[in-house]
Write a structure and sequence with these properties.
The protein is α+β, with helices and mostly antiparallel strands. Helix content is 20%, strand content 35%. Helix 1 crosses helix 2.
């Protein structure tokens, strides 16, 4: 699935690297998930997504062996407007996109992931930014280098510089 983030095209599927590795340093920032408490994560999410966003996630692997991803996303996000797309590569799988996700829903699901109860292949996105979360990191990719610099400055003690190319 292709996400258009203004000038950047991000491919979110099992055949490509995660969004963080598809753009240069000036368009991305990475944090350790354990570096944020609830209030700090809430502020970060509000900066990235002041309004509703979409969520894309792996829901099922169809072949070679069927398996359904255990995301429990329905407990945290109201699913009323979604679309499923089937992809083929070494495996056949489905990525669903949920629209109109509220920032509060993203916060609650992020905290659920932080507790280590699930490790979904998931990202949240709008026309300007992508928020990728796993059980260890939060990655933000943006079309605005000014926004990334602002976030890096505001959270400078928490930025993970391991993959910076400077």
């Amino acid at each position: 699935m292709e996400l258009k983030i203004e000038k950047n095209k991000i491919t979110f599927d099992l055949d490509n690297e995660i969004p963080f590795f598809q753009v240069g340093d000036k368009y991305r920032v990475r944090f350790g998930i354990d570096d944020f408490n609830r209030e700090e994560m809430k502020c970060l999410i509000r900066e990235v997504f002041p309004n509703k966003m979409s969520c894309s996630l792996l829901t099922e692997i169809l072949t070679p062996t069927y398996s359904k991803e255990k995301t429990n996303i329905g407990k945290y996000i109201g699913i009323t407007n979604w679309k499923e797309d089937k992809y083929f590569s070494d495996v056949e799988y489905i990525i669903a996109t949920i629209r109109e996700v509220e920032p509060k829903e993203l916060l609650n699901y992020s905290l659920y992931i932080k507790r280590g109860l699930v490790s979904p292949f998931i990202c949240f996105h709008d026309k300007k930014s992508v928020y990728y979360i796993s059980d260890s990191v939060i990655d933000i990719v943006s079309s605005s280098t000014d926004f990334i610099e602002l976030v890096k400055g505001e959270y400078q003690g928490r930025v993970n510089h391991y993959y910076d190319k400077t």
